[in-house]
Amino acid sequence: MRCCYLLLLVILMGIVLQKPAKAQFLNDTVRLESIQINGKRITKNSNETRSEIDSITLVKSGTVRLSELLSQNTPIFVKEYGRGAMATVSFRGTAPSHTKVSWNGLELNSPMLGMVDFSLIPVYFTDNVKLLHGSSSLSQSAGALGGTILLENRPDWNNNLSGKLLSGIGSYRTFDEYLQINAGNRKVQTKSAFFYNSSANDFPFTNKLNATIDPLTGDYIYQEEQNKNAAYLNYGLLQELYLQVASDQTFSLKSWLQHNERSIPTLLTNESDALSNINRQSENALRSVAEWRRFGVRSRLSLLSAINLQNSAYRLENSVSGAMNQVVTDADAKILSFINKLDYRYNINRKFTLVAGLEADYYRVLSENRLPTSQISGYNQCRMENSVFARIETKLNQYWEAEMMMREELIDFRHEALLPLLRVSYQPDPLKPLKLSASVAGNSHVPTLNDLYYIPGGNPDLKSEKSFQADLGATNDFSLGKNKFHSGISIFYSCVKDWIIWLPTFQGYWEPDNIEKVSSNGIEANIGWSGYVKVVRCDLKGNYAFTRTVNLSENSPAYGKQLPYIPKNSANLNLHLLWSRFSFDWMWNYYSKRYTTTANNEETISDYLYPYFMNNLLLGVAIPAGKKKLAAECKVLNVFNEAYRTVLQRPMPGRNFQFILRYDF
Amino acid sequence: MIFSKKTCLNGSFLLILLPLLMTGCMKDDQWVKDHLQQGIVQLPAGGVFVVNEGNFMYGNATISCYDTLKKEVQNDLFYRVNGLPLGDVAESMTIRQSVGYVVVNNSGKIYELDTHTGKYTGKITGLTSPRYLHFVNNQKAYVTDLYAGKITIVNPETNQITGSVSTPLHPSTEEMVQLGNLLFVSCWSGDKTVLVINTDRDQIVGEISTGVQPCGIVSDKFGKIWVLCQSVPGNTSANPAVLQCINPVTLKIEQTLSFNAGAKPVKLTIDGKGENLFYLLGSEVRKMAVSSDQLPDKPFLTTKSKLLYGLGIDPVNGNIYVSDALDYQQPGIISRFSEAGTLIGSFKAGIIPGRFCFW
User: Fold this and answer.
1) CB–CB of A268 and B1 under 8 A?
2) Facing B24 at nearest CB: one of A508, A564, A640
3) Which residues lie below 8 Å from residue A325, measured CB to CB, with a gap of 6+?
4) 3-class DSSP state for residue A47?
5) Chain A: residue nearest B80 by CA?
6) What pLDDT is recorded for position B270?
7) Beta strand spans in A135-215 (E)
8) A196, A168 in Cβ contact below 8 A?
9) A598, B327: Cβ pair inside 8 Å?
10) Could A320 and B148 be called an inter-chain contact, meaning their C-beta atoms sit closer than 8 Å?
11) B35/A603 CB distance under 8 A
């Protein structure tokens, strides 16, 4: 909360400090005749609660995964099951399936699981990362109760031939390679990219959760261990094609092919047979998006068709001496998402803009698990999801803007939900950037196909999660000499009815259920400063979030308690210093205590995880290479070599290094 | 102007210094030490251990010790005494000569603890997915396994694995009961067999075809074997859960009692005299005399719980212990009833209390 007060202070400071600027404007500024500029680019809705990761951060984050980028640069909480292991997110205190990820209009969320594994998305393959917080996500789709993460790729129409080459080597036999070649002219642009990333991931650690007893002294002997069975390998290919088919029309085709495989290490307390728990998880994904856009003087029409094919396999077996290996789990899933969208935007006049759209999506999941008894269990189900929406954006006067939207959701051609949105924004002084906004909306998230049909446990009687969302926000920018400041704060409230949660049962498997009500509310804030200290260019950015997500189901034994693994406080701070050819980045990340039980106890060691503080460092130097750019970087992760855990029973690495060579041509 | 440029810049530098102030803040060692018991723990001379499974892949299994005389409970006993977590999914516990053997299923090991002090005295490791331990004698015990396709033979005196009984066609072996030199083993997950093993020769000498997914298995005062077959999820009248009685001499099923379609009976238990069978059915405890030829149509105990999870019968006084796992993500509640079914009291244990072990 102290961080929020600090942010409020910064916003107020900006308001106070802008007064002299106005006086200066009155006395010194030469007034120019106003002119009207007609352009084809239609501005996006500026009232949304959104944030964007800047391009400098994206460039220096080339080798990181999306999970690391988000935890370091946004208020989103990332739950990482280990280095290179699965990573899920909680946006505004919601569940992982409540955060949607859209890659150039294609939703990456699995219709089977609902969530996205952020550890498998390379930052290399995106030119822009945006966040739509809370109800702002309704402009894209329904169901993102926490928000939406937009990953975008863009052409550079001025490019003739350019590219990037990146090579990295790191601790625990970690290798990163990336090559991108861009070619084209003002009519055609292509971008081809390839990445490769692998790691033995066998970092050493002291296992304090297992001990043998010294037969002489009776003392415990803790084992020095290596992270076993944790290697991973990812590689992918991205091909983009952009065509300027006419002066007012563009066509783009983007295809992304990726292969991932990894093993999942056992828990720290595991002392099973060395030949047991041999597992491998692999996934192949093909994603393609074709989009045609037509720009009119007052309109824009977009047609998009996209496909996401995922084949995943997981095999777990135990070696049995003198016999064939005992297969415990042999599961396959084939997942198809076929997305079709039509968007039309029309500026009726200077005050009103109409946006309307249609979406028709088809999802199919074939999930099979071959049991040790040679039986096959699983399901083969499909679902149609359609939606239609209309939105009016209006500029009431120079101070007030408003937006009204209705979105109708259909599942298998049956009415599912009618979702309204109302947003207003107010700019007290049109000449100043201070802006206040408020919104209310309804949202709905349908159960995933696993929620409904998984065997065993799927519950076809599950209801959709219904949410009411409200937001209040303020943003401000101001300058002090060469120093530029940015600040933003948002207060949110969300109440979700029929929240879906999987619970274990006495039958030995888990079942999903609608727990009645969950309330999530809190504050998100961010600050930024760019300036100079003598000859050193400084950029400082920070995010803070206070999130209270509690179970409000009256009959629940967890009534009024924070949901497990959602920190109340999270923050990050990034400092970037640039002097001559040298750069220095300090990245700090914090999560407060996370409870692991719904009772929020602190009686046992496994009831909670202590606060998380992480410090990473990046040192870079630009090497003179004519007109090209050559840079060398050294990353130090976990600078203070701390022993820590982010999830119970999962080891994390100590101080480790990565060296990167980057060549832009 | 309230703030000068210099003040603002100084403020910014304070922000820059903030990370430095936060260094070395993760207290993993302190976290490990914080929950240790101060001083020596003395456990009661008699009582009940509650085996709390914990959540799968959380590694938060615990042991609770309840003193029936003082009516006091000590939760998280193993960690507080030993500074080591029990592991992931504690399935069962067996006591022999003041040593408690706790089978930790998803940690592939069996921890041994002194039942007077709770102190960790040894462990049997290198198992695959152990479920239950059964003593044949002081030097030999069998360990069933969910996935190994074998029953492991261990020597509890040396904590060494000494052999195995291969069951390749029956990967999941579960509960055991011994009559003479014959050991009857239920084969649970996806199976429908009770194996018969000669404990002198460590060999399978018979296979009895049962209902689907036989789980709990007990012997009664007449020397008959009772096995509860859970059937499959979403069972129907065509494949209901069944309770079966096996003749240990002929190895034939003498009696099959079918439950209603959709019924999910679990945790078959027998009292100390071997006269009455108990099992859980939703929020109820059902009781059936071993001489009966039909399932009880009325509950013996009805609780306010939505769903009961664990059941134990004190072999000495017949008191009945049932557990409610609540939402399975917080400490569960144990309710104690007299032999006649009167509520005596209740206490809070650990997460998902599944088994009771009396001594």
Assistant:
1) no
2) A640
3) A278, A317, A318, A319
4) coil
5) A604
6) 98
7) 147-152, 161-170, 174-184, 188-199, 204-213
8) no
9) yes
10) yes
11) yes
DSSP 8-class letter at B167: -
* A279, A229 Cβ separation under 8 angstroms: yes
pLDDT tens track, chain B, 359 positions: 444 555 455 555 555 555 555 556 777 888 878 877 766 778 888 899 999 999 988 999 999 999 999 999 999 999 999 999 999 999 999 999 999 999 999 999 999 999 999 999 999 999 999 999 999 999 999 999 998 889 999 999 999 999 999 998 898 999 999 999 999 999 998 899 999 999 999 999 999 999 999 999 999 999 999 999 998 766 667 789 999 999 999 999 999 999 998 888 999 999 999 999 999 999 999 999 999 999 999 999 998 888 899 999 999 999 999 999 998 889 999 999 999 999 999 999 999 999 999 98
Partner residue opposite B330 with nearest CB, options A318, A557, A575: A557
The string of pLDDT tens digits covering residues A561-572 is: 999 999 999 999
CA neighbor of A564 nearest in space, from A444, A468, A648: A648
Dihedral pair phi/psi, residue B183, rounded to 5°: -110, 125
Contacting residues of B for A606, CB less than 8 Å apart: 54, 58-60, 62, 85
Q: What is the ipTM of this complex?
A: 0.89
pTM (predicted TM-score): 0.88
Pair B245, B255: CB distance under 8 Å: yes
List the beta strands (DSSP E) in A25-171.
50-53, 77-80, 87-90, 99-103, 106-107, 128-133, 147-152, 161-170
Contact of A201 with A84, CB cutoff 8 Å: yes
> Shortest CA distance to A655 belongs to which of A628, A636, A631, A627?
A636
**Contact (CB<8Å) A323/B172:** no
Give me the long-range contacts of A626-633 (CB less than 8 A, separation at least 24).
A628/A663, A628/A664, A628/A665, A629/A662, A629/A663, A629/A664, A629/A665, A630/A661, A630/A662, A630/A663, A630/A664, A631/A661, A631/A662, A631/A663, A632/A659, A632/A660, A632/A661, A632/A662, A633/A60, A633/A659, A633/A660, A633/A661, A633/A662
CA distance B300 to chain A (A): 20
* Contact indicator for A466, A442 with CB cutoff of 8 Å: yes
Distance CA A403, CA A395 (A): 9
- Region A418-427 average pLDDT: 96
Burial class of residue A185, CB neighbours in 10 A (0-12, 13-18, 19+): exposed
